[in-house]
Every structure is written in C-alpha cells, then in structure tokens.
Amino acid sequence: MRALLARRGATDEATGSAGPRQVDRIGLLTKVAAAVAALGLVAVVVFGALWWNAGHGSAAKSAAARDEALAAARQIAVNLQTLDFNTVDKGLSIWESSTTGPLLTEFQKNRQQYADQIRKVQTTTNARLIDAALSDLDLGAGKAKAVASVDVTTTQMDNGAPSLPVTKQVRIALDLVRTPDAGWKADAASAIRS
C-alpha cells in the first residue's frame, strides 16, 4: 500500500495535480491570507475612524475655537493701540467694533472726548503685534483671557512737522467674550505693568 501511495504521489507530482499535502498547504495559505486581509480591513476602518475624529471631533472643534479666539485677541490688541488723529473717527469705530460689554460702553460714552484730545495733540499711534497667547479658555461660557505684546510707534505733529517716531513695547491683558453675531470681542482691556 505504501508503494501504491508513493507511486500515486510520484504520479501527482509528475502530472502536476495536487496531492493531499499540497491541498492542505493551499487551504492553510488561503486561510492565513484571508485572516491577514481581514486584519488589514479592520486596521483601515479603525485608523480611518481615528483620522476622521481628529479632523471633525470635539478636539478639532475645541482647537478651531481656540485658534479663532487667539486670532481675535491678536487683532484686537493691534486695533486698540492704533489711532491716527487724521482719521480719528474711523479709528474709534474700529475700537468700538473690537469691543463689547463694559469696554464698548466706555468707548461710546467717551468717544467725543477721545476724538477731541487726539485731534488737539495731533498724535498717531501704530501698533505691530509681537506675540499673543490665551491664558484661559472656557468654550462653554464663551469666554477667554489673553495677553498680547505689541510695539506701539508714536508720532506727534509739532509746528506742522511730525516728531521722530518713538516705539515702546506695550503688554495688554484682554478679557474676551464670544458674541453670537460677530465672533470674539474684548469686554475688558488693561495694560500689564512691568
């Protein structure tokens, strides 16, 4: 019988047909390939879900809100330190559009006084952002705190000619509030003393 099986195996090899051992190997290799393919599919689904969540989940929304608040703080810091006596009304309107709450109320209440004073001393200030950071962010309450550093260059007209520019670094603390219609605005601003 062994001789018959040995001849049959030799015949199978010679004719190219698969013997029992080869059939077992093919079945095993098929099962292994199917398992690897299934694991690959699971990995694709898991990593795809993680990738989607990173771009669209709550962490992404928090990061986007943080970036919006920081961008607003940067612009507000520059806006509140820039004013030209030649276009004082436009400048004060920018101040008002950058603020809300008590700070907006103060600017509106004292607008004419500020305009008259700037026109009288003929001063121009231009701010350039150095850096800004959020020190606190409460998305649920729609509030943030920021600190910013700006270089403020001041010139003043003297007998019809501008003075030499003087640049001073100013650090500002801002309390921000997210408004429903206009994004983040400052409701408090104060200079940080060295």
Mean pLDDT: 86
Low-pLDDT segments, ≥5 res = 1-12
- The radius of gyration computed from the alpha-carbon positions, rounded to a whole number of angstroms, is 36 Å
Strand elements, count: 6
Task: Describe this protein's structure.
There is one protein chain. By secondary structure, the chain is of the alpha+beta class. Helix content is 54%, strand content 30%. Strands 1, 2, 3, 4, 5 and 6 form a 6-stranded antiparallel beta sheet that branches. A hairpin with a 4-residue loop joins strand 2 and strand 3. Helix 2 packs parallel to helix 3 and helix 4 runs antiparallel to helix 5. It is elongated, with a radius of gyration of 36 Å. It starts with a helix and ends with a strand.
Secondary structure layout:
Elements lengths: L1 H14 L4 H37 L1 H22 L3 E2 L3 H10 L3 H21 L1 E16 L4 E16 L2 E2 L3 E14 L3 E9 L3
Antiparallel strand pairs: 1-2, 2-3, 3-4, 3-5, 5-6
Helix pairs in contact: 2-3, 4-5
